[in-house]
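Why predict the complex rather than its parts? Because the way molecules touch one another can change local conformation, and only a joint prediction can capture that. The input here totals 860 residues.
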Amino acid sequence: MYGERMLKLAKAADLASSKYDVRIILTPQPSDIYMLARETSHVHIFAQHMDPIPVGRGNGAVLPEALKSSGAVGVILNHAEKPMTLADLSQAIKRADEVGLVTMVCADSIREAEAIAQLLPNIIVPEPTELIGTGITSDKDYVIATTTAIRKINSDIQVLQAAGIKNGQDVYNMIKAGADATGTTSGIMKAENPEAMLDEMIHAIRTAWDEMHDK
Amino acid sequence: MYGERMLKLAKAADLASSKYDVRIILTPQPSDIYMLARETSHVHIFAQHMDPIPVGRGNGAVLPEALKSSGAVGVILNHAEKPMTLADLSQAIKRADEVGLVTMVCADSIREAEAIAQLLPNIIVPEPTELIGTGITSDKDYVIATTTAIRKINSDIQVLQAAGIKNGQDVYNMIKAGADATGTTSGIMKAENPEAMLDEMIHAIRTAWDEMHDK
Amino acid sequence: MYGERMLKLAKAADLASSKYDVRIILTPQPSDIYMLARETSHVHIFAQHMDPIPVGRGNGAVLPEALKSSGAVGVILNHAEKPMTLADLSQAIKRADEVGLVTMVCADSIREAEAIAQLLPNIIVPEPTELIGTGITSDKDYVIATTTAIRKINSDIQVLQAAGIKNGQDVYNMIKAGADATGTTSGIMKAENPEAMLDEMIHAIRTAWDEMHDK
Amino acid sequence: MYGERMLKLAKAADLASSKYDVRIILTPQPSDIYMLARETSHVHIFAQHMDPIPVGRGNGAVLPEALKSSGAVGVILNHAEKPMTLADLSQAIKRADEVGLVTMVCADSIREAEAIAQLLPNIIVPEPTELIGTGITSDKDYVIATTTAIRKINSDIQVLQAAGIKNGQDVYNMIKAGADATGTTSGIMKAENPEAMLDEMIHAIRTAWDEMHDK
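Output of the joint prediction:
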């Protein structure tokens, strides 16, 4: 999603964030950040990628300071579709800290998540493909295994679990299983009515959270 | 340059473009495209890079359709700081044609410029480092050698010459030597007053052009 | 294939090359080049990749001079599984010319093949995926289209056609359609008896060639 | 170094390894591994790089099984001149374990070394450029800082310190400072007589080691 279609979803997310008092992260194309940041007031805009370059170099690279000034508050790093070298990832986390961008780093195995935890990001998104077919199928086991491994190294890191979320029930189960947060791209994109699906999911987070905290 | 500082330069460029009736291309960070496109009316906003991905895939990649919808009218490809594989470059030119973005492709040798000419971009920027120290030092020889090589393959391609432009006199000489266009990053960035330098350069283009066409 | 298994195939290729008087190119892992070059006397050993680095730099890169000294006589560049930037490809062809290695460059579209032809390699391997479903399905049309496009730019470049070769009949048809050469990896690897299949294919080349030249 | 020149050095290393009873790792071009493994009997041949591919795919990639079969006993990963994505590095360490190759992984900061330690390599080579200018200038402080950080995570990992080794005295100091091992490329390459310098360095290791263990 991009442009006007993305703006419509962002406005629905803004509304849902306010209505349910739940924090929502959106991760648009870099060229949509400025527009979305101006047109919303509750959602958090994260860039999809950032390069660890200094100001004044790197035509074609995504500059940390430029993201910040356009309204982004955080950045995804090392997504499976944009893998980073270890040196760049380490440096990008430092640059994000310098300019004040929250870092959300993707891992594709538990061992990789443990390595990333040493680099002190704010959020880790573990998507351990290795678990597929191992018998660790329940949401609960999966969430506990990855969360425990990361927390053992650094308990300040938040863990966002994003495997196969398709609807409100999946979201509810994930939060009840102990995830700090959850996320989806295809679950929203493939929904017949993305805005309605977003409302359903955010509502599910609120419900799960309230039940866990006796509200 | 990015954010507010870039916006100030863009407004000066917008003014100079109108004042001297000269076409100006700006190449900002992707996150500044939307803002600059809204706040200017004469300059042409080109993205610094684009990936040849289809809609719906490629987190962290720069989507052609998203650039277009944010206000970009063109894109730089294969910049020396963002070299592309031949397969990606070929595909990116096709994708740009599809969505209606002008392609400006960089080459770092005459032979590379000839290869790029076969891919049918709109503009080629030859920066033949190989010429350094070969005796072909005058602007005129340099411009003629590269322009001739490209035109021989496809005479529709425009050639933008961008080697070592520091001031209005350099710009004047380059246009008089036969370049379709010229450009600079450091010449503007390092100037004490970038807006004044920009005005000087655009004025020089106008003068050179008028002298060449007897106006 | 690698190690002892590759050596067995190389010896069969060596025998077939001599028996049918047909030139055969083998493209082993870099660590097998030295062994194969010593143990064969007719086949031509090409490396699978090479980096355009100078002597004395580039840990982890494949050095042209080292390939040459180990017994390689040529190198594949820009294979679809190892795409190169245009700048590296252009430079690698120059480095190969310097040290005396034959260059065989892969292209994945006709337009890409035309761009590569400008870089003056010795051999181009066009595998135009774009032709799929276009109606240009016969071997003959396919071979003529790509060969003509390349020859128009530089008639010294040899064209090796390698699409979907499974057996001796495919090889025969390809040569009769006008290809300078043909090749296969999976056709040999997936054969029940790779050495027998290799003999069948080389025999087919000989037969096709002799028929075309009235012997 | 490559080819015959490398073979001469390898033979001198083989002799020094035997003479001083010190383990020596050589890291040649992939195309020299087979020759060096056959012509030496004491030195350990490590490849300069390896890709985490399975057998049967990846033209142009370096296959773990092929390295092993050619005589390599280990592999360097993530060298500063061949940086790997975190996902590839993690996978390459697993593949090396599978085929029985020792892993030696480079890090360019202490934080990066800590991340790598989570991936369970056999050896880490920390070259913390960040320490430059921090006052931690003595070999001893430098070695202790990096070794401590790595050991805290996994005490089985050996630490090879390789910063600025130019002669036998540097080697002696490094081992006395607590390094498990040390290494150099330029110290040997730039020596007037590389074989003599190699003997001097290996002798220095023996001396330092014996002094530390009261022999």
